[in-house]
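Box 3.1 A note on notation
Throughout this textbook, protein chains are presented in two layers. The first layer is the amino acid sequence; the second is a token string describing backbone geometry. Keep the layers aligned when reading.
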Amino acid sequence: MPFTTGFSRSSSTRPKAMPPSAPAKGRAEEARRVLLQSICDFVIRHDLAVTAPNLATVCGALSGSHPELARALVQREAAGEPIDQRWLDTLARLDPDGHSRIAALETLSDKLEYALMRFAQTARAAQTETSDHRGAIGMQLEALAGPPELAQVLDLSRAMLARIEQVEGAMAKSEAETAALRESLAKARAEADVDDLTRLPNRRAFERRLVSAAMEARAKGEPLSLAFCDVDHFKQVNDRHGHAAGDRVLCALAASLTEMARDDCFVARHGGEEFVLLFYGIGKERAKARLDTIRRAQGAKMLMNRDTGQPFGRITFSGGVAEVTEDPDIRSALARADAALYCAKQQGRNQVALG
């Protein structure tokens, strides 16, 4: 049975024509209602999770506001290939707004950090200058001796000294608070790049690393390869042993990937049971061989559910590899690696394919 995305002529979710006399408001309300129903039908039909990223991607395609997403869905349907969560995550990479939002957030964080740094420098300079003035005024007061008419001037000067000391204390406190805020900002930015479960870099960190690594590789004339890895039959692990046990399996695989990938490889969790690796300075053939070595080592392990004592069996993964520097468009490499991963799954899993 072919998959239906809601774009075919026979689709029951196509907006119905309104009578010419219908008010504009009524037409707009009906269009929104039809769009919401189309999104709902799409999510249920393809058994997708109801998450903000999923809804944003599906809405962008079905509403026509993102033609590239719409074309990708139509092509997927025409090829008779499944529209599942893994592929939808790949589709979301076609959305340039996501990258724009990340870039805007990074820019805002940079501006905030710079403003805090400048404030700290200004507070420190003001504190030093105030301290110098306080010392000079204090020396002059000690040297003054004379007629009683100077008493008021001296009292006023001493009051000024006391006020300056208060300002110095406030500046010192502000400087300490600014330093603590900058440290918290740095920690928050670092934590935003880490996957909560596996403690690997997350998708956000990977996408930023991919851009910088591709630019560096092209500047040096060196190859750069990437690979997607997806745990085989992971749903069965969750169904049989529970999600907590499934989480431990992901953590074990994350540790294995990190241990075996070496220093010239960047490993991240891309989402769900999918991981991604960047291989610096090597082409896709060597990257495939490296990933195959990791795959065989992982497949040879026997994992045990420590809560129940039951074995998980052999946990394997499938992989797709592509060379980023073969194409000027980074998204092309992502699409080729994802297509190779899908091919590896279709051919029986527990293998690595080239894209």
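Residues 98-191 form one domain. Residues 96 and 245 are 36 Å apart (CA to CA).
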